[in-house]
Design a protein that fits this description.
heterodimer; A: about 150 residues; mainly beta; B: about 90 residues; alpha+beta; 3-stranded antiparallel beta sheet; about 20% strand; disordered C terminus
């Protein structure tokens, strides 16, 4: 399957690797199919590339590599649409953002992927978590969620 | 917008599979119970809209914006994705 992307040029993706997001993503509801690509320079970073829209891609990371005490509490109602009975079958990534001061991570709304079923969904995690967790060299400990 | 008045313990049906129930009313705060199929996400509107805005901002990032992200990463060789063609090393 060929995708003409604005960031990575023309890429070929195995249809079996494509992730289906039945609800798309908030703000990108029409983008239902995504390919998870590794960044060429950075093994800590991936890019969630929309199959339908070559100009749409989100930088994603495994949250624990950047926020070691990040514990996601996801309500079961958020996991059921993914056919996940527990989080051990899931891969969790968070979206990288950018503000005037630097790069941020969306810890409030992680993306949960069911690797076996090749489905995914952005969920709202319980507790007080930042939508824009600032990445700095001094990492403040994350408050425990309620 | 359809505006209905309900008292505590009364409900509203939306479509044929969503039920909203007034669970409690205390002062100016209403507690709502929502019964909906699990594939229909239900969120406080301001939370959903904040996530929408953040996604739309994040969707503008380019590889040049993230090239220094590695300096914030701890140890570990599990990146979030496998490369499209085989292992990296």
């Amino acid at each position: 399957m060929r995708i003409n992307t604005s960031r990575f040029g023309r890429i070929d993706v195995d249809p079996a690797d494509v992730l289906h997001f039945p609800s798309g993503l908030p703000g990108l509801e029409d983008c239902r199919d995504w390919a998870l690509l590794a960044d060429a320079d950075n093994d800590a970073l991936g890019w969630l590339q929309s199959v339908a829209r070559g100009d749409v891609a989100l930088a994603v990371v495994s949250p624990r590599r950047f926020v070691p005490d990040y514990q996601v509490r996801i309500p079961r109602s958020e996991l059921t649409p993914l056919a996940l009975s527990d989080m051990r079958q899931a891969q969790v990534v968070v979206v990288v953002g950018k503000t005037a001061t630097g790069l941020t991570l969306n810890l409030k709304a992680p993306i949960v992927i069911n690797l076996e079923a090749r489905t995914g969904r952005q969920v709202v995690a319980s507790g007080e978590l930042p939508l824009q967790y600032e990445l700095t060299n001094q990492r403040p400990p994350l408050k425990k969620s309620a | 917008m359809l505006v209905l008045s309900r008292q505590r313990d009364e409900s509203i049906m939306i479509g044929d599979n969503i039920v909203v129930t007034i669970v409690d009313i205390r002062g100016d705060k209403v507690r709502l119970g929502i019964n909906a199929p699990s594939e229909i996400p239900v969120h406080r509107q301001e939370v959903y809209e904040a996530i929408q805005r953040e996604n739309m901002r994040a969707a503008r990032l380019e590889p040049g914006d993230t090239q220094d992200i590695g300096k914030f990463a701890g140890r570990g060789n599990n990146g979030p994705a496998r490369p499209p063609e085989g292992p990296r090393r």
